């Protein structure tokens, strides 16, 4: 059965009419938790370079990729390593990925991020770091508008230390595109909601992304999300849902295999691990008391990762 295509609002991040942008964001977050942003300031050519770099990386021999196997949540994860839907028994998702964490995170041994060597992929690190900084900037501007959309001060999330510094991860994704031959249903990415605050997603134009707007209703109805050139797809994560007492919706999504190879780049903008996520004053009152107890962002994320990776 063909899925319906979802019409999502397009928010202009550079609009001179900020009030109307803020209003549209609020509407989008209440209704669906997904929308597009344009004029976000991230260079389109740079995004193309990132997608190209991603293709080069995933084409490396597996031995080369395994040298950068995921440690401290940074580096390479193999095909079928993840099962985003812990309730399903499938073999895992048909995708491989590469994670890049905060650029300044250091240990005594040096940077936590792992990088392919300059000889193998020249300027690769520079391209990814440049992109990381540009998307982070777009994300922080968007968060200010989201704060306004929640009737908070524009600087609210800075003031509570969420971005001091933020915990943001760039994730390159590759869906190989072969359709599985077994009877078992395989997904590119199985049904999940993102864990953090917001996600800024860019993709190469190959379809497959779907959302389910009513996560509690059965049967689940999935709708296609179209890719718009130059726009980011934004979605609200579970921590933002928690912060807003479920006023803003963190929506289930998945990637279906289409038989075509697909590359995407997700940027997860999450609060500092020490930042406490607790019901916002503007999101509760006597008749709608807080549904969740306060929790530190780092603690919340650790719990979620344990379920995803089964470790
Ligand atoms: O590749 C995509 O389009 C979506 C990826 C995704 O949902 C995720 O990594 O959380
Ligand atoms: Fe996701």
TrEMBL record:
Keyword Metal-binding applies: yes
GO BP: any one term: coumarin biosynthetic process
Pfam families assigned: 2OG-FeII_Oxy (PF03171), DIOX_N (PF14226)
GO molecular function: 2-oxoglutarate-dependent dioxygenase activity; metal ion binding
Domain Fe2OG dioxygenase residue range list: 165-271
Keywords on record: Iron, Metal-binding, Oxidoreductase
UniProt keyword Lipid biosynthesis present: no
Similarity-based family: Belongs to the iron/ascorbate-dependent oxidoreductase family.
Protein name (database record): Fe2OG dioxygenase domain-containing protein
